[in-house]
Amino acid sequence: MRRQITGLSNPTVKYLRSLREKKHRKREQRFLAEGLRLLTDARECGHVPQVLVMAADRDPHPLLNALELAVDQTGGEVIETTPDVLAKITGKDNPQAVAGVFAEFDTSLASLPRESAQIWLVAQALRDPGNLGTMLRTGDAVGAGGLILIDDCADPFSVEAVRASMGAVFTQRIAQARWEDFHPWLRAGPGQLVAASLRDAQPYRGAPYAAPCFIMVGNESRGLPEEYEMACDLRVTMPMRGRADSLNAAVAAAVLAYEVLDKLES
Amino acid sequence: MRRQITGLSNPTVKYLRSLREKKHRKREQRFLAEGLRLLTDARECGHVPQVLVMAADRDPHPLLNALELAVDQTGGEVIETTPDVLAKITGKDNPQAVAGVFAEFDTSLASLPRESAQIWLVAQALRDPGNLGTMLRTGDAVGAGGLILIDDCADPFSVEAVRASMGAVFTQRIAQARWEDFHPWLRAGPGQLVAASLRDAQPYRGAPYAAPCFIMVGNESRGLPEEYEMACDLRVTMPMRGRADSLNAAVAAAVLAYEVLDKLES
Question: Which chain B residues are within 8 Å of A248, Cβ to Cβ?
């Protein structure tokens, strides 16, 4: 039993489209993700969509069947629609043949299992959802536990961030906190706070990293507030051989995370 | 003598706006860049805009004065307009107070001074202008000579790529070529071609990098064609500790470039 929807003005389509806006996501505590591979990653990590939307002209695929079955078994809804409607929902000209609506996760700091991983990424006031998704993806690659978002960051559940994460939004833990809450939480247990910084910093290569290592990068334009940097256990800097004195925030986090991974594993 | 433009339907405004589209940029051989810092970087690298567009309500700034002077001295045009018109030209809701029109650079491979740098970045079929700009920015940071774009990549002169490059579009050399032209060019002189790869690859840490080292990453979805990887002198891989087996292309290039930089300098 599949519900068919064809009209762009259908209330369900309007509802699904509304999840592209942060205020609606917050109200509904739900978000959108698209693509068979991403939805399959989600399912394999135990996240089954509450609503599955498929293009009526899709090619058959065993993974899609598995997804449908999982949605049925968990009491979710399956909707068939046109590529046009899917494009409208995801805001993408060439939508993938499938999209899902997921319940947002718990992003409280309190539930973060800090000793379950050697590396955690921390972003402060990160504004670009692409950078945020890229950090989640990098976190997955280095085996980080997750990404902690400090102060006013982009929404990790935006379509852009979910897309850029390439599924890591489902494998990485995500926490959201103000600095005033994060800092005491960090200091209440084991954890080394490391900032990518230009202030009073040592070379990032061979610095004395220790697990669990919290790697923090700052806002794309302003970097980290000085007070935050000074609260770190280590401030490290990457060589800058050119005219500029900075890297893209997600790039800086990745270069640093791979160095930390190398040191912690050797 | 400043030309004042206020109307959105002014032909000059329409012309400047048209440079946001690739076909118009190609026809005119000109591109747009915005922001005082970026335009100042450009000027200091010898690139003065042919047309400088400033918001009439801008704050005075000595660097802006220097920019105006340079434009006057090189026979360029200075236009004053409203923030609305600037927003229309740059396609940004909160435009910076200044934008410039530049002549596109020579992007032929033949003119690339390969021995002037230890590192060159190479991107194949890179589709995302943000990734492209980020690679330019990373190239600047590691002291690379420039970025070589193989096959059908995003346009390095798009507003998005220029913005993401944070000025590195003016400091890095850019070349565009098909693989059929790039590969013979590379082999006609010194140069080690290194691919970030999962096929028959060795660990990226401690691999025998040699200058000039050409670091190549592939398309965001498909990676590099196997034939291209097999033509490399080295295939290296980064640890993947998570579910996914890939990194963002610009991130992979950066992690690799910093490793190469470390090895070549030590």
Answer: 134, 137-138, 164, 250, 254
CB atoms within 10 A of CB B133: 27
Per domain, the residue ranges of chain B are: 3-103, 109-265
Chain B nearest-CA distance from A184, in A, is 29
User: Cα–Cα–Cα angle for B169, B171, B176, nearest 5°?
Assistant: 55
B109-265 homologous superfamily: SPOUT methyltransferase, trefoil knot domain (3.40.1280.10)
* Full-model pTM: 0.94
pLDDT for position A230: 95
Q: Which residue of chain B has the CA closest to A206? A: B262
CATH number of A3-103: 3.30.1330.30
**Considering only CB atoms, which chain A residues are within 8 Å of B164?**
248
**Given this model, what pLDDT does residue B15 score?**
93
Shortest CB distance from B243 goes to which of A140, A251, A255? A140
In this complex, which of A130, A205, A243 lies closest to B262 when CB atoms are compared? Answer: A205
For residue B65, the model assigns a pLDDT of 93
Q: Rounded distance, CA A250 to CA A179, Å?
A: 20
